[in-house]
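Recap from last week: sequence in, structure out.
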Amino acid sequence: MAPLWLPWMRRRGGVAADAPSAHSPAPPEDPRPLADAAMAARRWEEAARLYALVVERQPEDVAAWMQLGHSRKESGDLAGAGEAYARAQALAPWDADIALNIGHLRKVEGDAHAALAAYEQAAALDPGLEDAVLEAQAMRALIAEGRRLPRHALTGAGRLLAAADAARDARQWREAARLYAEYLQAEPEHAEIWVQLGHAEKESGRLAEALSAYRRAVELAPLMADGHVQLGHALKLAGDHEGALAAYARALELDPSRSDAWRELRGYAAQGRALKALSGRPAEGDAAGAAEERPHGGIAPAAAAGAVAFCTIAAVNYLAQVRVLHDSIRRHYPEARFIFCLADGPLPEDAALPETLEVLPAEAIGIPDFPSFAFRYEVTEFCTALKPSLLRLLLGELGFTMVVYLDPDMLVLARAPQLLERLWREAALVLTPHLRRPAGARLPPNDLSIMRAGAFNLGFIAAAQRPEALRLLAWWGEHLAHNCLERPEEGLFVDQRFMDLVPGFSDQVHIERHPGLNLAYWNLPEHRLTRHGEFFEVDGEPLQIMHFSGFDPTRPEILSRHTQMFRPITDPALRALADRYAGLLQAAGYARWSSAPYRYARFASGRPIPRLARRYFADRHASWRGDPFATLEAHLCAPASAQAPRLPRLLEYAWSRDPVLRSVFDVATADGHAAFLSWLERDGAGLLGLDREWLERLLAAAG
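Predicted structure tokens:
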């Protein structure tokens, strides 16, 4: 690089060539303090001149090259700034900050792809450099949506755009529209400026011109959610409500965090307007959407990119809770689908579910050896074990961009924009902690009881369609195939304890700490619930989802059977909320459904399956040839071998797994065998969970 100072050291024939005049300033002995002072005073051209002298004298000074780049960029010499940054990077290729500033320069130049490459390089060099990570995410979103970076203000087009923006900010709409239109003559592919032209035309009262501008923006950048939102606003003003609904729905498919689109849809819903497209369901008469042509229980794939699904899993006895959850989701997320995984037999004929409550039989998820899987678990274990397979199906084969699982005993009271934003932008999984503050030594649940249950409450889990999410769900599903057991003495608490490991596996797992998301009896003591008419707040934030775990609507004064706290509920806001939920459940048919029989509770013969039989199966049989509901019953009553040849298998299992029973009864001897059977008749059957019919069968088999 040629020095900026006059080359007064060069001489020709002993006479200084191009020597400075008597009035020219002499180069300072140490220009760095002057350069630093000029930069601090934002005298960019002077700073650039002085830093150029610094690097002329100290060409290996990385910091000086960086400051030269900064000052040149701020003075408008973008090419010179690029040269300075490149020199700094050549000297220190490991420095993430240099790559970050190159990204900023490319962004100013309007080159989104080059900016993204530089930001990704910076993030790779220093994964903790948050600015680089966030800028890279913003560039990816901008490129994916077909948007463009604005021209630099010092270019001709940039000056025109700056003037248009100034007129817009001054609310001089006609002038802004004229300037934006002039800019677009030179840059006709800039979709975001077509949106700005649409705003200016709309505010000027020229609705037809505004619609034309918004439509052009959508044509140029069909994945830009903002273009669809603004088109929806204009169509609404024009009276084209069907078109506006479609535009808002498309915006939410592309970016479910757009609360403005959701508000518009909710407003239409309040007026009784609706579109089938909003739920992603096929139109009537669409042969391609016929259930018999779809796999997975007739559930239609996602209608478009960006689609959101909420899902839950329950047996028939929770049908009232499922209906209430569905209705609350439809109220606050009208654009979302709702999938109910039925972990039970066919629905009774009088279920009469709404069309938007889509039922997916558990056996249609695609779990290998499903009869053994269903037999292995009690109903709660079974429902929780289905989660990873259900989420993978919805994200994978059915193509939903985001899926939110909620337990059926939840009530959605407000939209959670921060959740959808996390899923849309960066997170593979979103979890909520049981506790957000130490519980200390209060009544359970406290720190110790939560440690046994797991750090995260898996009544809520959200996932995005990302490879990392599918990988983590596959890992979780492998464990739950056999280990979704409620055995706290073995460190197992159904599906939850495994998730304690996941934040250590991936930096794409987000822990959501919003106080109003997944509020329940275990974290209520941490927070303050307030009521404002029909709305509820937690610590001043909207209550988004309330989890009524262990709630009995026939006793609404008790919040949960799982704790001695809130017996009775004394807080008026909490009592009002509990009364509301109880009323919703009763109206949804709680009395009809709460006692419904469970399909997988009995053998094919009709006899009930003892809990002990499921434990035997889980511990002794990783798989079973055939259907255990049909064939395991006889196997349990057949003679065991080894130490207890005269005991049927189920009793031998009960004896062998309990060290106390083994120490008291030597069943290999006649006396010990008889004593064990006597204990069973007197006390043991109740302790082992065997009803009278099973006890008599097993005693008969034992001789």
